[in-house]
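Quarterly update from the structural biology core.
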Amino acid sequence: MRVCIVSIMLVAAVLFAGQMEQLAFVSLINGNEDIFLVNEDGTGLKQLTKNPANDWQPEWSPDGKKIAFISDRNGNSDVFIMDADGKNVKNLSNDDANDWDPRWTLDGRILFLSNRNTYWELFIVDKDGKHLKPFLQANIPEQHMCWSPDGTKIAEESDATGNWEIYVGDAERKQMTNITNNPADDIDPCWNEDGTKIAFVSDRDGDQEIFVILPNGKGLRQITKNTVDDHTPQWRPRPK
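Predicted structure, tokenized:
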């Protein structure tokens, strides 16, 4: 289940001037979905979650100190939070229903989707798990779409050409350009904080890997390279 919330979708940032950006992503390298951290040149790989259940959909807090994510370690999918180093894991939503797609608000709360009322709708919760309540009804988009940090552009995945590609265009989707142009499937676009790069997932080498590309389709780089699926890239925000 996927939603995109303006200004908090797939946030990204430079750690500080002159240094490398980092991405959190999901990998099956251990046989189940775990969350990892990596530098944008592929170095410094670190495993953040180590649980026999599946952990996925990492989402950085605006200050880069916390990561919200989804885990089925309690038998269903719940929203969890942890420190940027993987410590102090806490279940925030804690319900028998399925909760998906956590997104941070600018004031440090977390929006997520839940079917606890038999249909999918948005809920909001504080980062300590308090004050959980419905936010508003949400229509689930058919394709993964997200706005650039300044809200003027959109990146989305679409299978308009017969396979999934990443498109970039204006916020009203009047002029969309295919920036990946590959017979493989390219999905899950993710803007960095200044809108100069997009991370995405592609299976062009036989399994899902993390790539980075410029919004104009140039400068393609492969970040991960192994024999299992890596997905759900998230740029780390700038320290506040």
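The domain at 22-235 is CATH 2.120.10.30 (Neuraminidase).
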